TrEMBL record:
Entries under InterPro entries matching the protein: OxRdtase_Mopterin-bd_dom, OxRdtase_Mopterin-bd_sf
Pfam families (UniProt xref): Oxidored_molyb
Gene3D superfamilies hit by this protein: Oxidoreductase, molybdopterin-binding domain
Cross-referenced SUPFAM superfamilies: Oxidoreductase molybdopterin-binding domain
Organism superkingdom: Bacteria
UniProt-recorded name of the protein: Sulfite oxidase-like oxidoreductase
Domain annotation Oxidoreductase molybdopterin-binding: ranges: 35-179
Amino acid sequence: MMAVTRGFVGRRAADSSRVPPGQYVTKGFPVLSAGPTPYTPLDAWDFTIRGAVEHPVSWSWTEFQELPRQKFTVDIHCVTKWTKLDVPWSGVSLDTFLDTVPTQAAYALAFSDGGYTTNVPLADLRGGKAWVVDEYDGRPLDPEHGGPARLLVPHLYFWKSAKWIRGLDLRTADQPGFWEMFGYHNYGDPWKEQRYYGD
Ligand SMILES: Nc1nc2c(c(=O)[nH]1)N[C@H]1C(S)=C(S)[C@@H](COP(=O)(O)O)O[C@H]1N2
Ligand SMILES: [Mo]
């Protein structure tokens, strides 16, 4: 009998419209790191906004924990072509940090323990589109996945979501980060397949 429930058809249609061109859906959570996993003790951790600001501002781990947080579920898209749907996170909106730091800057270079950097226009970190997350699936974020805390910018390819995030260097001029200097696209919109320089 050709019985297909509306729910099943509806969900399939919804899922394929959530997968950007050239991507496939994976149930796993691959680990992609350009170097060794750093282990920074929480009492030595802070999140700093510096650069084109009047005064750099830092939040200790304790202060970060006291900020208003959000639990949310988003899809993530890696440039190596896997997409993971419905990934549950908890963390602090970048708006919460940026709203306290006046700046004329239009760009941010995120920096991490271990030396990784990635550049994102400041507008892409504002408006509820980006977070510093420290929980995945209700548990502290694994070190391999960027714990204690990583940047999450789910509307861009996942290399923009810097693991082991320590802060943002605000810039009036754009400066390419680690992968952007090695030929990845400067912006990285998965829906436009902006994988590499020139895409
Ligand atoms: N600090 C740091 N952040 C990073 C990376 C890295 O090598 N170092 N790799 C990036 C890339 S290319 C991807 S696809 C994702 C992978 O995150 P995951 O290992 O949690 O899947 O992290 C991004 N953030
Ligand atoms: Mo990646």
